[in-house]
Amino acid sequence: MELTTLQMAAIPLPLILAIVCHEVAHGLVARLLGDTTAHDARRLSLNPLRHVDPVGTVLVPGALALAHAPVFGWAKPVPVNRNRLRNPRRDMMFVAVAGPASNVILAGLGAVLFGLAYRFAPDSPGQVWEFVTFSLSAFIQFNLFLALFNLLPVPPFDGSHIVEGLLPRGAARHYARTRRLGLVFMVLLLVILPTLFPQWGIVDRFVVPPFQWVFDRFLDLAQLVAGG
């Protein structure tokens, strides 16, 4: 689908909001569990300038949008010192889950607002209404995709911290050593393998199908709110 200029303009705000809230959620839960590192670094803020990663927040999403591919991105990770957590092994799982959980909650809020927008749609919708509804739809999709994408059990994604916390301690220590290769894993799984072997695309196989199913359920919620 080729995006119109209006739709392109509607993408940045919901994408940045989804990414920033994801990172802030990590830091807030870490603070609740004893680690004030993110708070001390002034990263518990919704000011996007404190979280923007030039590549992950600007270049990658922009390139994907221009290529008409699924748009996603990332921000600078909030700093978390696991050694300052009260129970590092358990609490790192809570910190990891916080990001995707915040995105699911935001997607639910977006679905409710999306439904309300249709319930109270003007008789003659104009470009403002189109901008608002497209932004809300994009907001739902970005949040759901970001949540599911980050649950992949591969370093450096949030899912890897969950796996590490669930593994026996010995296996968890070995698994944790792979974290230093996180960037290598990301490039290998998301760029090299899909290019060489399209049938092995990890996003297409393990993220897109559940994303589409969950997105349809959130659209059901929006339709319910809209009165349909």
Can you put this structure into words, describing what you see?
This protein has 228 residues and is mostly helical. 69% of the residues lie in helices and 0% in strands. The protein has 11 helices and no strands. The chain has helices at 5-10, 12-32, 37-40, 54-66, 88-119, 127-150, 158-166, 169-177, 182-196, 202-206, 208-226. Helix 2 packs antiparallel against helix 5 (88-119) and helix 7 (158-166) runs antiparallel to helix 8. It is globular, with a radius of gyration of 19 Å. The two termini are 26 Å apart. The model has no long low-confidence stretch (mean pLDDT 87).
Order of helices and strands: HHHHHHHHHHH
Radius of gyration from the CA trace? 19 Å
| Helix proportion range | 55-70%
Please report the number of helical segments.
11
The helix/strand class is mainly alpha
Oligomer: single chain
Shape: globular
- Contiguous low-pLDDT stretches (5 residues minimum) are none
Beta strand count? 0
Largest sheet at a glance? none
| Average pLDDT | 87
Q: Give the end-to-end Cα distance, rounded to a whole number of Å.
A: 26 Å
Strand share of the residues? Answer: under 5%
